[in-house]
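Researcher: Structure for this, please.
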Amino acid sequence: MARYKDPVCKLCRREGEKLYLKGERCFSPKCAVERRPYQPGAHGQQAQFQRKASDYALQLRAKQKVRRYYGVLERQFRRYFGNAERRRGLTGLNLLIMLETRLDNVVYRLGFATSRPQARQLVNHSHFTVNGRKVDIPSYLVQPGDVIELDPNSRQKEYFRQVAAEMEHRPLPDWLTRDAMTMSGRVLALPTRESMDLPAISEQLIVEYYSR
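Model: Predicted structure, token format:
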């Protein structure tokens, strides 16, 4: 399975804002964006003085920012866009809804993980069930009514004991509900654009990028 293996802090610095790829570290003074608020590379500090970005550059940055935010590689992201085009409604919104309803993102939103990369690893290791069946595919798309639950064999692990104690204090979007006692969550509805705490981007720029 292909995945990004280089330092993720470089991705945040390249986009110029936090993408929250390292969980709690992103909220501490150790965050690379706060320590080095300029682009990575030998000429990173000079990049802020470059001329105004072109329309293509703005479209590319919007696409890259969302792709990196959800931890999706380019080929898979393009497939998501193709599926979004074939669905009814706004293509940009359809794209974001598919990314938001990925199982690894839902596990993160429910509070089982402090970052999406960590959530992806937990799903890969078969720690969760969907409607009673084990699912180890991070890209699995959940639907309204689906119940995501911690596998009974994983509940005694020290990590999940700590999660159970902290779960109630983690934010929860309005399209999900959770039960810390049973270590489970339910999808109430598809997410709305307002419920997605995305970086400051316009999904229309992504549509324009792939429509060139």
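Researcher: Any notable elements?
Model: The longest strand covers residues 147-150. The chain has two domains: 9-99, 102-187.
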